Predict the 3D structure of the following.
Amino acid sequence: MRGSLHAVAFDVAGQHGVIVAEGGAVLADGSAAELAAVMHRAEQAAGEPPRWVWWDAATAAGPIARAGGFLHRCWDLAEAHRLLVGGFDAAQDRVWAVAHGLDPDGAPARRSDDLFDVIDDDSVVIRPDGYLNPVCLQPHWQRANLSEYAALALTVARKQLALLATRERGAGTGASESGAALLCVELTAHGLPIDRPTMELLITEHAGPRPADEAQARQIRADRDRGVLDLLPGRSSIDLRNPVQVRDLLRSLGVQVEDTRAWNLEPYRDTHPVVGALLDWRKDERIATTYGWQWLDGHVGDDGRLRGPWTACDGGAGRMTAGAGLHSLPTPLRPGVAAADGYVLVRADLGQVEPRVLAVVSGDPAFARATAADDLYATVARQLNLERPAAKLAVLAAMYGQTSGPAAEALRRMDRTYPRAMAYLRAAAQRGEAGESVTTYGGRTVPVTNGGDQAHRRAVGRFTRNAVVQGAAAELFKAWALTARNALRPLDAEVVLCLHDELLVHAPAQHAEAAAAAVQESLEAAARRWSGAAPVRFVADLRVIRRWSEAKD
DNA sequence: GATTTCACGTA
DNA sequence: CGTACGTGAAATCC
């Protein structure tokens, strides 16, 4: 990893921070605004810009982002640690231990943040056995020893870089995942632009008007329920929110289902009118309870931005996660996501990303050739001598571990035509079934739970089979998102949503075309870098729109 | 009061 | 006997 490492640390409140260079020199010591100015100058200076190192992005980069700072390259100890060992737990004592080749479960017990039990305990930062003194985990110690705390981050970063260098692409993925965590800080801070009047209209449509008090809320719920209950004369006492009652009711109407989940009920829409009414009621009820007035008040600020917590990776294959409904906003509400006046949204989503990723990670030359087409499944269909729907099913079945049903014959053809891709997936499944972790293309450890019966082991196999594809797709996506973030900065445009294979960018209207071009070029650059110029094509559908809903075909 | 089950939103 | 996560209501556990 080229360029010098500079550590950044803040107190928990984000009031006071330091920048420490390798060798221990303190380059800055003050407020977030002062640090941001120093960092900006360092990035503008001639030569290789520094890579900013921090224990975690939220604490160190949060104050910088809120002060208007913008940084290009970083190293996030928590994200690198998650790559190294898998899972989500990145407590600092474990990060230190893993970086130093020590058993993280052997780390000394943590202390409460209590001044009394540390008085005789803070003489040595690194214990004789190599573990970090637990006192260093305590906010008051970090606040009082900020530059030492930052210097520790540099020590860990160098160790992590050495460990990741033993994995192909490991160091590059560490940088990219670190950048994704920085992007998450910005996503959390900036939020997704919402057209509040439109969103209020849509919520009213599905959940009813904003209730003034609890009595009115009850009345609105009762009104919503009546649409279903009116179809059930004499049964108006049943509780639609109680799955057991609903199941027993449906059984009495001749609808025999194990549970009342929508995909089980959908075939019975025409059996009894109450089934369709119930399914429609559930959609409105979902919006009322999860994406209704409480959600709007709780997560959409006075500035019309929807904010929720973002994480750069989950504890599994490593996809980004988001709260506050940002990853599960119901389609009917998407017209309420809209560019501000004078701005546009650039929506870009990757086409058929998982099979294209499989072509890269498995190095299957025949499968790679299929990615040359805009519609990969059409080419696969020709190569397998199948109809397109059957070919698509076969590819998905291979990646998800489905073995039964109509996919069986198609899977045999896949084996003959794409032996390397299929062997790659099978190897991942076998490792999972044996209770062994898998490593993604970018070098992320995906741990698995050990033991269990055969059904459980099979389930773990399906998980690891999917994780090596889903995880690699997440790595490519984050590399793309981060590249786009940096390229969009000069246009005053910003990424406002990441949705697994879809990017939403908020851009000044006069820079709409330039922003769209930057997103497209970022994909090409990121894919080239990530795939090592493998002969695999990635495609994105790009549109300039005002409302998220306009993107739907 | 905390955890589990059911359900459903997204990819 | 296709994967993941986040959220909320009700049931269940302690």
